[in-house]
Amino acid sequence: MALAEEDIEQIQSMIRQAIAQTPAVGNANVRYELELRERTVRVEEELKHQRELMLKGFAQTEKRFEQVEKHFEQVDKRFEQVEKHFEQIDKRFEQVEKRFEQVDKRFEQVEKRFEQVDKRFEQVEKRFEQVDKRFEQVDKRLDQVDKQLEKLAQGVFDIHQEIKQQMKWTFAMMISVAGLIIAILKITG
Asked: Rg (Cα) of the chain, in Å, rounded?
């Protein structure tokens, strides 16, 4: 059954009257609440994004600490090598002492043995110089590690400060949004 033209006009006039009787304030409140909800959703999404960024930053910091630990392990290995080198030097000193005993036994060959001992001492001195150079290299490397650690510490401190600032901003934003919601609820309630 199709509606007549008069019926359609009558329905339209009734709709217009109903709309005219509906207060605009109610519609505005509904719209305002919808806008607030949309804003709240956007703020929550942004907070989620900030959290993800913070977690990524923490993961990168953890990786950097692992790299520093590996570097310290390498330094420990180098120290072990230096200790082995000192053990070899001690063994060589023992050999030199045995040679001195032979010098006592073979007094006739003292001059030849002294020349050999002088040569050995020169080698030992050269080795001591090499060890000194290696210690200087290790000191330089440790200084570099200290500088890198200071840079890392400063970077972590900067990240910490930035996170604090973002947390303050986020907390203030959440309090503001909560205040707005409470105010809206009081106004509409």
From this structure: 42
